[in-house]
Design goal:
With about 170 residues, the chain is mostly helical. It contains seven helices and no strands. It folds into two domains: about 90 residues, RNA polymerase sigma factor, region 2, helix turn helix motif (Rna Polymerase Sigma Factor, Chain: A); about 70 residues, Arc Repressor Mutant, subunit A (Orthogonal Bundle).
Length: about 170
C-alpha cells in the first residue's frame, strides 16, 4: 500500500485520536502530519506482524504522548525561566480546549472531563480513549497497546474507577 493510500484511508482516524489526546485542533493536525512522516520513514521496515491500522494507531499514540511530554517540559521551562527572567513577556502559552466536535454550550463540561482524563496515567488514558472514544473492543485495545486482553480490561476498569473518583472529588469542592 502506498503512502498516499495509507493517508487517504487513515488520516481521519489519526486526526481524531490525536484530537482526543490533545483537545486542540491545530495541534492534532500537527501530530497527524508527524504520524504520516513517521509512517513514510518506516514504511519499508513494516513487517506486517500486525494490521496496518494497529501499527498506525501505535504511532499516533506515541506521537501524541510525546507531544504531551514536550508541552509539559516547555511549560516547566517557561515557569523556571520566568522565576529568573522578569521581562514581563509570557514565555509559554497555557493549553486551551479546542475540539470542533463539541457544541459551544457543552465545551466547559467536556473540557472538565478531559482535564480529568488527562490526569490519568498514560496507559489508562490510552486504553480509555481507544475503548470509549474510538469504539475499540478490549481485544482491539490489547492488540494496539501490545498487551493481553485481560490487561486491557484491567486498564479500562482502573481508568473508569480513577476518573469517577476524580470527578467526585472535584464536585465535592
Amino acid at each position: 500500500m502506498s503512502l498516499e493510500e495509507l493517508y487517504t484511508e487513515y488520516k481521519d482516524m489519526v486526526f481524531n485520536l490525536a484530537l482526543n489526546y490533545i483537545q486542540n485542533y491545530e495541534d492534532a493536525q500537527e501530530i497527524t502530519q508527524d504520524v504520516f512522516v513517521a509512517v513514510h520513514k518506516s514504511l519499508d521496515s513494516f513487517r506486517h506482524q500486525s494490521n496496518v491500522s494497529t501499527w498506525i494507531y501505535r504511532i499516533t499514540i506515541n506521537k501524541s504522548l510525546d507531544y504531551i511530554k514536550a508541552r509539559k517540559r516547555k511549560r516547566r521551562f517557561g515557569l523556571l525561566t520566568s522565576l529568573f527572567v522578569n521581562s514581563g513577556e509570557q514565555l509559554f502559552e497555557p493549553g486551551h480546549f479546542d475540539h470542533p466536535g463539541v457544541q459551544l454550550e457543552q465545551k466547559e463540561a467536556v473540557a472538565g472531563l478531559f482535564r480529568h482524563i488527562n490526569n490519568l496515567p498514560p496507559n489508562q488514558k490510552t486504553a480509555l480513549l481507544l475503548n470509549k472514544t474510538e469504539g475499540k473492543s478490549q481485544a482491539e485495545v490489547a492488540e494496539i497497546m501490545d498487551i493481553s486482553p485481560k490487561a486491557a480490561e484491567s486498564l479500562i476498569q482502573r481508568a473508569k474507577t480513577n476518573l469517577s473518583k476524580m470527578i467526585q472529588t472535584s464536585e465535592g469542592k
